[in-house]
Amino acid sequence: MYTVPAVITASRILKLLARSKYRQSTLTEIADHLAINKSTCLRVLRTLQQEELVRYNERTRMYMLGSYLIVLGNRAADFLDDVAIARVHLSNLAHETGHTAILAQKSGADKWICIAKEEPPVDFRITITIGQQFPIDGTSLGACLRMLDETVNFEQSQVLEKGYAVSMDGFRKGISSVAAPIIYKDQEVRYVLSLLAVTSSVSASGLQKLAERVKAEALRISEQISRLV
Amino acid sequence: MYTVPAVITASRILKLLARSKYRQSTLTEIADHLAINKSTCLRVLRTLQQEELVRYNERTRMYMLGSYLIVLGNRAADFLDDVAIARVHLSNLAHETGHTAILAQKSGADKWICIAKEEPPVDFRITITIGQQFPIDGTSLGACLRMLDETVNFEQSQVLEKGYAVSMDGFRKGISSVAAPIIYKDQEVRYVLSLLAVTSSVSASGLQKLAERVKAEALRISEQISRLV
């Protein structure tokens, strides 16, 4: 493998500090959680600190994400044309359906992560934060994301056949979701487009209609991003 | 020094790809610009790609920032309480003065970088992007940012005495700026708060008044962030 261990450690530290629970952590907490040598961890942390990718509070002895990440994140959102394209569609979807629209991607082996979202201007809606992580199991997004994996199973073939997945209350009790994969150049599932709805606000047939709507939008995004250079 | 070279290389690559000119670069362009060994550069790039901090386009052979940075950037903006506090004040400043308010920090030896901004709801205003970099020389922000350096010079003492800096057309012809430092615990200049105005829309005395306003707001932010744990 052509990877650099120290860079992987740096990345794992940043991803850990991006989780609410670990947003402020001591050296020991970070090293323990990532199961890495404390002195290696310290060296990587100090380097990240010097680069302003991590901030250290001397009084509390806690590390947290650094302000330069705000710059990198904004630049990535501006420069990644496929995300920019998807965001336009998220906005349309949220406004037209009245449900929260999200763009998610796979994170690690068994989680998905929200990288863009649009909430509709209605009183009752599902709120989600960019960066929020969820387990893959039991949700419509999960069913789509499992397409990323090599193992073909029943659910995956269902998604492949219909082009979308529906999950009533699977996500969390009271929350239903519909999702469709955004596929780059007919082969790579790059993102999943999804709508999150309050279950009591939609019927089973209403969910099917939402799913068809999300599928159509995901197809349009897939075509548009596949045309990018 | 307790730094890790590979992590510095990774950070420098990300910062390079965050610049408009280098948003899509080949391995050779990156290695040449950063004056690093090509095979080291490739290993770091592949690691960053695996971690989704960098994306690689196989067809064009270009690297660009990766989508996971969007997640990290959003989390940093949410978790860094001082940035969150400053953003509230930016919004007030922009709406009350009708000028573009920005929060900047030092980047490298001689640049500053915009990490948050708020534009007023008026027809003519200066637009700036988060992540945009500017040279320190000749601007009011530069004068404040030079306080970060160890060398005391005339301009620095002026900023220290008055608590703000004013630059008419110094930024770029037609653009004037006023700026004041945001100081953490009475010692560390953490950010610079600034207003960017179209020069023709403000008189010299008007600029002075804006400077006093920015100074007052920067002081309030300084006090608030210094009280954070």
Automatic annotation (TrEMBL), chains A, B:
Alphabetical keyword list: DNA-binding, Transcription, Transcription regulation
Record bears the keyword Zinc-finger: no
Species of provenance: Effusibacillus dendaii
Isomerase recorded as keyword: no
Family annotation (PANTHER family): HELIX-TURN-HELIX TRANSCRIPTIONAL REGULATOR, ICLR FAMILY, HTH-TYPE TRANSCRIPTIONAL REPRESSOR ALLR
Residue ranges annotated for the HTH iclR-type domain, each copy included: 4-67
Domain IclR-ED: start-end pairs: 68-227
Gene symbol of the encoding locus: gylR
Protein name as it appears in the record: Glycerol operon regulatory protein
GO terms, molecular function: DNA binding; DNA-binding transcription factor activity
Protein's GO biological process: negative regulation of DNA-templated transcription
UniProt-listed InterPro entries: ArsR-like_HTH, GAF-like_dom_sf, HTH_MetabolicPath_Reg, Tscrpt_reg_IclR_C, Tscrpt_reg_IclR_N, WH-like_DNA-bd_sf, WH_DNA-bd_sf
